[in-house]
Amino acid sequence: MRKEELRTPCYIVQKANLIRNLEELAHIRKQTGCKILLAQKAFSMYSLYPLIGQYLDGTAASGLYEARLGAEEMGKENHVYAPAFREDEMEEILKYSDHIVFNSFHQLQKYQEQVKKAGGSIGIRINPECSTQEGHAIYDPCAPGSRLGVTIENFRPDLLEYVDGFHFHTLCEQNSDDLKKTLEAVEEKFGVWMHQMKWINFGGGHHITRPDYDKETLIECILHVKEIYGVEVYLEPGEAVALNAGSLVTSVLETGENRIRLAILDTSAACHMPDVLEMPYRPPLKDSGLPEEKMYTYRLGGPTCLAGDIIGDYSFDHPLKEGERLEFLDMAIYSMVKNNTFNGMRLPSIAVEEEDGNITLVRKFGYDDFKMRL
């Protein structure tokens, strides 16, 4: 099938771009000897896990279901972290996971015997209280009052007997200069105990496959920690794996005007690209420009009843027409994993674009997918 044959809306993952990202990550692995995990919270398209598993070391999960998915569909290393675990799920989590990261020493004390009995490796998430976010406080785990990770004030060296590793995750779509700054804070506060560890996990948020990313500084940080502390180093990027490797194809349902030109699409920001409203950000759109940059500027919105279901203002070389197709870019990450059926919206289909341009439809959704969630 070709792209124009797809029923919209539809997510399309470009396999060639995905492989390009995976090759860049594999290069980091080769240069440093570190291990890299897919953070499934950003990209869980498991039909591509066999391909991803050829390049990466395994998966990182945020709870039971992601842990099971990683174990069943990739079957390599499987690390699980949650702010708090449920007692009635821990036994099953341990069936699927080899590394368990706790958010507090209370959780560590509660489950350490169970994890060790199952043969798992235990980690503790630390909070270096080093904020490097600019303008996105919702994604800052180091903000005052954060519930994520143990601060130095609450650290318990007396309970490290069972701990194999430290995990810190402070970044979001950031370059390696912020990692270097964070690592300096981690070493200043927790370095004395890092010598006791078997592994250190740098978490996610590393935009490694972005064109301007400073890979040399990342490599230096990894090699520094390996050399000084004699530990295994893990990275668990999510966005970097599928960055710029997917699109969302949509159709224009209606055009109108209310002081500005309006276009209603069959794609909803609230339902199909919720990060547009949550971040917020303006997603790239193929063959469009900034407002007023081209002749015809439109405000693009979804078909739901939410007044704020607005994707953004874009300009075009021609007037938009009913039935015309538009293609939003960089739509593989945090889209499929976060979409919803508010207003009874149909979920977009999922497809893969092969390297020769042919399209394989992986999944399509209908009424039953809406109803089963209610």
TrEMBL record:
Signal peptide: none annotated. GO terms for molecular function: lyase activity. Keywords: Decarboxylase, Lyase, Pyridoxal phosphate, Spermidine biosynthesis. Its cofactor is pyridoxal 5'-phosphate. Residues 140-331 form the Orn/DAP/Arg decarboxylase 2 C-terminal domain. Its EC number is 4.1.1.96. It comes from the Bacteria. SUPFAM superfamilies: Alanine racemase C-terminal domain-like (SSF50621), PLP-binding barrel (SSF51419). It is an enzyme of class 4 (lyase). Gene3D superfamilies: Alanine racemase, Lyase, Ornithine Decarboxylase, Chain A, domain 1. InterPro entries: Ala_racemase/Decarboxylase_C, De-COase2_C, Nsp_de-COase, PLP-binding_barrel. This is Carboxynorspermidine decarboxylase. It comes from Sellimonas caecigallum. The gene is nspC.
